[in-house]
Fold this sequence. Notes:
The complex is a heterodimer.
Chain A: H1 18-38, H2 40-61, H3 79-109, H4 111-116, H5 122-150, H6 160-183, H7 192-205, H8 213-219, H9 221-229, H10 231-243, H11 249-270, H12 276-280
Chain B: E1 11-20, E2 23-33, E3 38-42, H1 49-56, E4 64-69, E5 72-73, H2 78-83, E6 85-88, H3 100-110, H4 115-128, H5 144-156, E7 162-166, H6 174-191, E8 194-199, E9 210-215, E10 218-223, H7 225-232, H8 237-249
Parallel strand pairs in B: 3-8, 3-9, 6-7, 7-8
Antiparallel strand pairs in B: 1-2, 1-4, 4-5, 9-10
Amino acid sequence: MSAVVADAPLRPHRGVSASGYLVCLGGIVWRESLRFLHQRGRFLSALVRPLVWLFIFAAGFRATLGVSIIPPYETYILYEVYIAPGLMAMIQLFNGLQSSLSMVYDREVGAMRILLVSPYPRWFLLVSKLVAGIAVSLLQVYAFLLVAYFWDVRPDDPMGYLYVLPALILTGFMLGAMGLAMSSVFKQLENFASVMNFVIFPMFFASSALYPLWRVQQSSELLYFICTYNPFTHAVELIRFALYGQLEWTALAVVAGCSAVFLTAAVLAYDPSTGLTARRGGPDAAK
Amino acid sequence: MTESTPATAALSVEGVTHAFGSKKALDDVSLEAPAGAFTALVGQNGAGKTTLFSLITRLYNNRSGSIRVLGADVRRTPATALSQLGVVFQARTLDLELTVQQNLLYHAALHGIGRGEAKQRAEAALTRVNLVERAKDKVRALSGGQMRRVEIARALLHGPRLLLLDEPTTGLDIGSRRTLLEEVRRLIQQDGIGVLWATHLTDEIAVADRVVVLHQGKVMAKGTPQELCARAKTDDVGAAFMSIVGETQKPRKASA
């Protein structure tokens, strides 16, 4: 270690190594967390958004929307309790797309290129970026759960907070990978509003986040059909059941399957030989 | 014109052609950047410099020809090639909200260098660009020239044998440009690394440099500044460049 002297040439590093993978992953998560902490506004809005839904929307609709007893709930529940899992998934959806947009932004300022000149395999770099995004989203979700706890929105069993963790990691992975795959398609920095309109709102509203699917079916078969095929519905249901210590197998299969598909798409899109960047002329093509 | 063999050249590009759709960005490009020397890649905007850099840094693969960094093929053994390569991109790539040191540590991690060693390397690299006292400052607080020098320090962090710089003086004032050039030339002398410096400013070329002229995706000329001047029958490198580039536009008239 002492071989690094100020005026001697910097020794070549030994290149890729097994322990280097961990260092690399750690570095990416560390940077992403640092950036997140520096963007207080982002954290605040990530927290306020679901709370607005919980405090205002849910309170207002509590009277008009009756929720009957459906699994995993064993008693009548308040509407706030019903939409909490959907809001948790919404936090992750926003986070996944925001970090994908930050990839686009990164790419514009060139930080993406710094990431991609790392000697480590590209799929590994992308997965590391995903892991970093999940870590940040978990922080946001648990902050939300903490506030919700004082609003009397909590699982029957405190262990639910623990059971939901693996579900959140998986849904975070799916939504993050989706964002990653999408980021490779964006040509340049697009405003978040269009992403809200075309991705977030349709996915969120056409799901079981705000209303149980049997209610949707009563009003529109078509919408019901769309909802059941929306991966976001399954993310919400996975979280909902996990919060009550239950595993929803269909949701698990869909979320795991979609994660694999989205991740494959992202890796292919960023691959130097098959990637869209190669065909289009790279990130600088927009210039 | 002395050509070093591909095995010893820090960078060796052979017969690389690359097209986006039907538009050929690079057409049978071959060039070398020897170790311990300053190679200037001169070309106007749109000459293909950035495409070439994207291929060398493996943003996407070259379809034909080969690119080797100290003998390691970028396509076949990317990890070996990339770990011997330091890059300064044209766009600013530092995180403005983070400190100089945090930026360097992040980069070190991307190369698998652990925290303790990374700190030592960061200090050594910053010493080389005379910015060691700014390590704890946020990047936002630095001047444009200083940011560039931090980027050079970052590119040196993992001890590369080849340094690529894509129009690094863009947007810098005359003083910062001179400092940057002096520092890079000193690095070549001290550490013996090879440098490929892309630019469209011919006044950045010194007598001892090697020059490669790239125009519309083709290598138009290679050699020392004197050789280029002799070919164009002028004593000014800028005029020589314009004359050589002009050969394609007016093939019968301009060339002497």
